[in-house]
Amino acid sequence: MPSKIRVLIADDHRLFAQALDAILASETEIEVVGRARNGQEAVEQALALEPDVILMDIAMPVVDGVEATKQIRKKQRKACILMLTGSNSRTDVARAREAGAAAYITKDRIAAQLIEAIRELAAN
Amino acid sequence: MYPGPDDPDLGVFVAQLENALRERGHELERAVLNRRAGGKRRYATLAARTLRAARRFRPDVVYAHFLVPAGLTAALAARAPLVVTAHGRDVRNVGAIPGIRSLTRLTVRRAASVIAVSDYLRRELETKVPEARGKTEVIDSGVDLERFSVEPAPEGGPHFLCLGALSERKNVVRLAEAFERFGSGSLTFVGDGPLRAQLEGRPRVEVVPSVPHDEVPGRIARAHVVCQPSLIEPFGQALLEAMACGRSVVATRVGGPPEFVPPDAGVLVDPLDVEGMADALRVASSLPCPNPAAREAAERHDVKEQARRVEEVLERAA
After folding, report:
1. How many domains, chain A?
2. Residue A23 is nearest to which of B47, B68, B99, comparing CB atoms?
3. What is the mean pLDDT of residues B308-315?
4. Residues of chain A that touch chain B, judged by Cβ-Cβ distance less than 8 Å
5. Edge-to-edge strand list for the sheet holding A103-106
6. How far is CA B178 from the centre of its chain?
7. B53–chain A Cβ distance below 8 A for any pair
8. B9: pLDDT confidence band, cut at 50, 70 and 90?
9. Can you give the pLDDT at residue B98?
């Protein structure tokens, strides 16, 4: 049996994170290995757990998703970060790319795109 | 929210609309929470149920009640087009609870259409969440005109009834004070909540626990006038049900009631004006009981007609 895709969820909205958790739990090949409620926790958990994919909310307290992505990528060049943005505005997309995110999806496209995006990132 | 064995009064309006949509020939699959207990973790359960139901049933459209959490859950878990009804508390939470604004904006952006149960609520939603502009329609939950039918007036009285939570928002203490100034008849509160102790023990005032929705028509039949002078009432379901039973109402003028309570069916009050409320009790108790004007106004909100209107929205979204 192939190993599972290990995912870290970083989002400060508990309801949102719980919903993501439930959605990912329904996929047999995905395992949620960590949950962070701000960018600082995301950096700490990413370094400690080395997940295959990090779902990173772009707007979080303490340290935002962009800064957390930069910090993680600085220490783990292979870290694979999928940025979750509130919109597909050029600013958000550009910030996500500059920080080193492998891809981004807008939160309103999660139902349609999240699982496929995680699979693709993990495969690459 | 959906009625369950432990909480038969939970989301009764959702079940009522569901039945009316089934009667119109639609296939429906439910993903619901049917009890109040369980804490915030139960929303993860709702997400899992929604996902399973969406995969099994493959709906043409997902119809959620309450923007957050149910609408959000549907937005994240189901790929089908989304329609969400805002009921009041979900809109009130925007700006009041940290984080809810962005989750609500996400839900509304993802929704093909939003339904608000009153024009008052539509305006509030569109002010707080600009993404709702241009995609929000007003359709209330309606009333089952067969279950809530006209009954003869009770003996004695006047008997006043207040159905709902014994909470600050429902303004129950001011109602009790207004009743005291009115000076005759009886006032019955049916509900639970933190203000119970401030209502109990007053002369001619009875406080009883909340009852299953099946027993509500009987409770209304034992009153001449139903009162809901809330500080704010996004729609006013209990008032509409009372009017369907041919009962005059004393209703808050803040929120939805001005949209469906005509002058010959009841009296609209300033919820902070106790003296005005006492006058309103006097005027409302002088209206006929049963009151044909109240029934006629309620008939314009037949749940079957509201289901037809919801159906139009769902079909456009699908």
Report:
1. 1
2. B47
3. 97
4. 12-16, 18-23, 25-26, 59, 86, 107-108, 110-112
5. A30-36, A5-10, A53-57, A81-85, A103-106
6. 24
7. no
8. confident
9. 86
In single-letter form, the type of residue at position A63 comes to V
Asked whether this complex has an ipTM greater than 0.90, the answer is no
**Residue from B141, B149, B115 nearest B17 by CA:** B141
Calpha distance B282→B259 (Å, rounded) = 22
Of B47, B99, B106, the CB nearest to A107: B106
Task: Give me the helices (H) in chain B, please.
Answer: 12-23, 42-57, 72-77, 89-92, 100-110, 119-128, 172-182, 196-199, 216-221, 237-244, 274-286, 292-299, 303-317
Using a CB-CB cut-off of 8 Å, the residues of chain A touching B51 are 22-23, 26
With contacts defined as CB-CB under 8 Å, which chain B residues touch A22? 44-45, 47-48, 51, 77
- Tell me which residue range forms the domain holding A13: 5-123
All domains of chain B in start order, with CATH:
12-142+303-317 (3.40.50.2000), 159-299 (3.40.50.2000)
The residue length of chain A stands at 124
Q: At B250, which amino acid appears?
A: V
Question: What is the average pLDDT across B171-199?
Answer: 97
Please state the rounded mean pLDDT for residues B262-267: 98
Average pLDDT over residues B30-36: 88
Tell me the whole-structure pTM to 2 decimals.
0.91
Where do the H-state alpha helices sit in B111-190?
Answer: 119-128, 172-182
pLDDT exceeding 90 applies to what percent of chain A? 72
Residue B34 amino acid letter: N
Contacts of B164 (CB under 8 A, 6+ apart): B170, B172, B190, B191, B228, B230, B238
Compute the nearest-CA separation of B113 from chain A (Å): 14
Mean per-residue pLDDT over chain B, rounded: 95
What CATH number is attached to the domain comprising A73? 3.40.50.2300
pLDDT of residue B38: 80
Do B154 and B214 meet the contact criterion of CB atoms below 8 Å apart?
Answer: no
CA separation, residue B96 to residues B91, B92, B93, B100, B193 (Å)? 9, 7, 5, 8, 21
Share of chain B above pLDDT 70, in %: 100
